[in-house]
Write a structure and sequence with these properties.
Elements lengths: L7 E4 L9 H16 L3 E6 L11 H11 L9 E2 L4 H13 L3 E4 L3 H6 L19 E4 L5 E6 L3 E6 H4 L3 E4 L7 H11 L4 E5 L6 H11 L5 E5 L25 H10 L13 H11 L18
Parallel strand pairs: 1-2, 2-3, 9-10
Antiparallel strand pairs: 4-5, 5-8, 6-7
The structure holds glutamic acid.
The site of glutamic acid (GLU) has 7 residues, from loops.
Length: 296
């Protein structure tokens, strides 16, 4: 396939722990797709939740990426340095009358099936200790995912109004990711399918803020024996940087990429070179079932 012009991709880890196998796959898939398209590959540290981020984790992620030969372009963007931009975006939405305060608890929302029923939309009083939500439109958001195909979600029915500023005063992922993908001119978002159901919300925010919508490709996420996504919360083991080759080969195989026995004899740089030359996004396995549900 022809390389895509003006390709800018990114890897955007949350530094809640060291790189593990699941996040290596995310880094590798986004890196290979960018490099195979002669694009840039940017790195963004999504460090907006200090309570969940051990101070050494961001540095450990950078070291691990270096050890795996995944060299990024330009300086790392830290979301903790971008609060003024998120405030501006929230303000723009406020001026459009799209933002309201809500003090519903997680338990209350679970009790009505996990989809927020927008009950605080028309409240006259302004609650204390509240989150700020955006009013979603009563329409279907549709996009074509480069791996999963055509995907759609009716935000009002399947998601409900969602949080942009949390009760604890922290900006929500959905707002920050949209503001920063635009700020960094990201044209391709390649990430795990656990974020597939966030994409319609992100496209909706891009439309409200007058921002371009990038292309999306969601690869399946690695799960453990209990079918839980490998994540720091689920104690996925950190990767061994001293012998990175086996994990790199496992990640390539997970992504359905062509393999060759000779790769096991190679070094990181030669394996990556081979993987860039042979990268085939169509070979990445699709999900068996796409479940679109709401998560804040
Ligand atoms: N920071 C998110 C995570 O580590 C990824 C965000 C994204 O790729 O949009 O799960």
């Amino acid at each position: 396939m022809k390389p895509k012009a003006d390709y800018i991709g990114r890897f955007a880890p949350s530094p809640s722990g060291p790189l593990h196998f699941g996040s290596l796959i995310a880094a590798l898939a986004s890196f290979l797709d960018a490099r195979a398209n002669h694009g840039q590959w940017l790195l963004r540290m999504e460090d907006l939740d200090p309570g969940r981020e051990p101070p050494q984790a961001a540095g450990q992620i950078l070291e691990a990426l270096e050890a795996f030969g995944l060299h990024w372009d330009g300086p790392v963007l830290y979301q903790s340095s971008r609060l003024a931009a998120y405030r501006d975006a929230l303000h723009q939405l406020q001026q459009q009358g799209l933002i309201y305060a809500c003090d519903c608890t997680r338990q209350q929302i679970q009790a009505f099936g996990g989809v927020y029923d927008n009950r605080c939309r028309n409240r006259k009083d302004v609650p204390q200790d509240c989150a700020l939500r955006v009013r979603v439109a009563d329409r279907t958001i549709q996009f074509v995912d480069a791996i999963q195909g055509s995907t759609q979600q009716h935000l009002l029915r399947e998601c409900g109004d969602f949080v942009l500023l949390r009760k604890d005063g922290l900006f929500a992922y959905q707002l920050a990711v949209v503001v920063d993908d635009a700020f960094q001119n990201i044209s391709w978002v390649v990430r795990g399918s656990d974020l597939l159901d966030s994409t319609p919300r992100q496209i909706f925010l891009q439309q409200c803020l007058g921002l371009a919508t990038p292309h999306y490709a969601h690869f399946p996420v690695a799960v453990n024996e209990d079918k839980q996504k490998l994540s720091k919360q689920h104690f996925a083991a950190p990767l061994d940087h001293t012998t990175p080759l086996p994990a790199l080969l496992r990640a390539l195989s997970f992504l359905g990429q062509p393999m060759s026995e000779a790769l096991a004899e190679g070094d990181i740089a030669s394996v990556l070179q081979w993987a860039i030359a042979h990268w085939d996004i169509q070979a990445v396995p699709k999900l068996a079932n796409i479940r679109l549900a709401s998560i804040d």
